[in-house]
Specification:
Structural class of chain A: alpha/beta
CATH class of the largest domain in chain A: Alpha Beta
Number of domains of chain A: 2
Largest interface: A-B, 72 and 71 residues
CATH superfamily of the largest domain in chain A: Metal-dependent hydrolases
Strand content of chain A: 15-25%
Oligomer: homodimer
CATH architecture of the largest domain in chain A: Alpha-Beta Barrel
Number of strands of chain A: 20
Largest sheet of chain A: 9 strands, mixed
Distance between the termini of chain A: 66 Å
Radius of gyration of chain A: 21 Å
CATH topology of the largest domain in chain A: TIM Barrel
Helix content of chain A: 25-40%
Shape of chain A: globular
Number of helices of chain A: 15
């Protein structure tokens, strides 16, 4: 006799884009979820007869695909979204952002800012983000409340920071976070190192050691601006990338954000070590920092993923907008519409992100055995018509609001545009009150 | 005794951005509409006591602003949206778009394609578009059905075209369209000339003469690609701009689309004649054609407005996405976040568009006496929080779907995301059937 298998959730009838290595698609397929795992994906007719489904979502006429991975943000910085744009970077940081951070960054504002960003991320189809900021317990708390995955770690700087105060303090705090969240279904920890120009060789070395000891990712801003490159060249007589390499910071566990000013030698160091690059194109454009040469990095075999950066500089937390922008900017830069394909853009936003954080075997595509992180997209809007190829529609026409429902770790966190775990109106109201204060 | 004045529609309580010359705002204002005109705008307390309001829309907590002007598109080309992207321009045109046009462009498909684009435009806050394509009576029919303004004219080419067949035929047809639509509340006519490389000096001259005789705008693709510039240089020994200038085509009634490859002399000719430039940045990026130097043109005193181009190359019909992209690309190109401001971007998408088509005194900003074209935006989404300055939020954070209601010529054409005059589902269904055929 067949033993019945409980299927907690089945998403049936959608056009499934698995985004796996073979770009497998089903025009009208089904995804069966048991607990937090995908246990079957394919034609409904092939579903094992032992399956007993508890809840079904009808996805007929919809598109079902993996959720996005936001590999770089400062989620709490949504509290500064739209604060004094259109200024030079120096004026903006010195006269607005830094004074505002000094006055306003606290456990309460980090919690609220992270919540707002997490809600925006879920509503635009993101199920996981890597955060770099302070008060990371509160980032954990906000993420848990929304049901979104987070990779967190207290940001390391040479100079005093809110919260832990010293680099040693931040490292100890990151270690304690790692202990606390080991085996947590949604939260994991990385050694979050600010940048070559804000972290001394000692701090970089300590960060690398902790990452190695605990076997966890290490992330950092790298080669974001010309200024940074010149500063490091003057200070150490080498490029920022070489600086990190010489200190043993670059490994396959390392995630380098921005990666705009990279020489051929720098790219080769990144390729050799297996470190990943995360582009944050909309932030880089808006700040006038420069453009990451994505296609060249991909061609050289570097894993390139996508991040939004914080909402103070972007000003959105939608990975969809980023992948669409990478496509446009690559084609514009190379003056060649064939230089990058829609499916490559989708990979960057999904599996490449999972790989960057060492989760490629669990996340980033729809596969039996992988974790159940997926979204249902409603293409019933004029901008989706006609639809010769949904992958192309996603890369060039889709809007973030077309994401209808989101499942993270087997749980429905948004259903028909309504967040299920968090009271959206309540926190938007709190944010309004915070700004008035 | 006071004579009562009937107010057909009042939009009350919203944060009103008039986008007039003084950037006048009311935090909680009212717009009173009688027939197709704005008859009062300001504080509700200052509304004349003689007003008798028939219908009120409560816009509390919302943003009210002028609708967008899409100065360049080929609306019917939505039928080719997403058809074979990621190819070189030559392959794409020769192997896909041109054969597809040959087989599929008919009165029926132009009607349907235009409808789909018009629906997308309204749903993203656009109230007027300038079209360049064939079978323009059917473009008129589709636009009328949606209640959107259109500036149309049969596209002129040297070679045979669908519909009228010859340039003389297209000119005669344009003349008859002008007669037919004189005094139409929504439809007006322009002499729609394809490009310097597809129109002989005779055709350009005839177009210029018709534009002058009827006192109507003339529009054209200009300096969109390097190839075009080289072709015209070889053929006539001058730049495409100088070619048009020498034929008397450039006047204050002329609208030049794209304007990417312009020398200093070309820009000076455009400035002197008072012609406008329309940038279509997302299409240009996606096709790898190059980038219009918007800020330099504005600084030299040229009127620069915004167009989406057709959905085959963009692949959207949202002016909002274009104005946002102009901001990012200018900041990226100049490596200077201060190079262009949010309010400048909004002007380009509204009043500059109206000016380009000689309608600056009737459209493009909210003012007593101007036509009642406005939109209500719902900012109650995480990506709008917080909101230090709504103009900045629109330029850097807003999504097209945040447009909640649209009023064109005093009539509500979209209410709470539902189109009021056209059966959206029916036509999306017809488009699906057309593609299957």
């Amino acid at each position: 006799m067949e033993v019945p298998v409980t299927i907690d959730l089945e998403v049936e009838g959608g056009h499934i884009l698995t985004l796996d290595e073979q770009s497998t698609e089903w025009m009208s397929g089904t995804v069966c979820i048991s607990g937090n795992r995908i246990v079957f994906i394919g034609n409904p007719a092939d579903r094992p007869s032992s399956f007993v489904t508890r809840e079904t979502i009808d996805a007929s006429g919809k598109i079902v695909m993996p959720t996005f991975f936001n590999c770089h943000t400062h989620a709490a910085m949504s509290i500064f979204r739209g604060l004094a744009n259109d200024l030079s970077l120096e004026l903006w940081l010195n006269n607005y952002i830094w004074p505002a951070e000094k006055r306003n960054v606290s456990r309460e504002t980090v919690f609220l800012g992270t919540l707002i960003s997490a809600m925006e991320m879920i509503k635009s189809g993101t199920s996981a983000f890597a955060d770099m900021y302070f008060f990371q317990e509160d980032v954990a708390r906000a993420s848990e409340q929304c049901g979104i995955r987070v990779i967190l770690g207290e940001a390391l700087f040479d100079f005093p920071t809110p919260g832990t105060g010293t680099p040693e303090g931040s490292l100890a705090y990151t270690r304690s976070l790692h202990q606390r969240f080991t085996n947590h279904p949604l939260i994991s920890v990385a050694v979050t190192t600010h940048a070559p120009y804000t972290c001394s060789p000692e701090v970089i070395r300590m960060a690398a050691e902790l990452s190695e000891e605990l076997g966890i990712p290490a992330n950092i801003h790298l080669a974001e601006t010309k200024d940074e490159t010149e500063t490091i060249q003057k200070r150490y007589g080498k490029s920022p990338t070489r600086y990190l390499y010489d200190l043993g910071f670059l490994t396959s566990r390392t995630v380098c954000n921005h990666g705009i000013y990279l020489s051929d030698e720098d790219v080769e160091l990144i390729r050799q070590t297996g470190a990943s690059i995360v582009t944050a194109v909309n932030s880089n454009m808006k700040l006038g920092s420069g453009i990451c040469r994505v296609q060249e990095l991909l061609q050289k075999g570097v894993n390139v993923a996508i991040g939004t950066d914080g909402a103070a500089s972007n000003n959105n937390q939608s990975v969809l907008r980023e992948l669409q922008q990478v496509g446009r900017i690559e084609k514009a830069y190379h003056e060649d519409p064939a230089v990058i394909s829609a499916s490559r853009l989708l990979s960057m936003a999904t599996i490449n992100g999972a790989k960057a954080y060492g989760r490629g075997n669990q996340l980033g595509s729809l596969k039996t055995g992988k974790m159940a992180d997926l979204m249902i997209i409603n293409p019933d809007q004029p901008h989706w018509y006609p639809r010769y190829d949904p992958v192309s529609s996603i890369a060039y026409s889709m809007q973030s609001e077309d994401v209808e429902s989101v499942i993270i770790n087997g749980r429905i966190v948004m259903r028909n545009r309504e967040l299920t775990l968090v009271d959206e109106k309540k926190y938007l109201h709190e944010m309004r009150r915070l700004v008035l204060r």
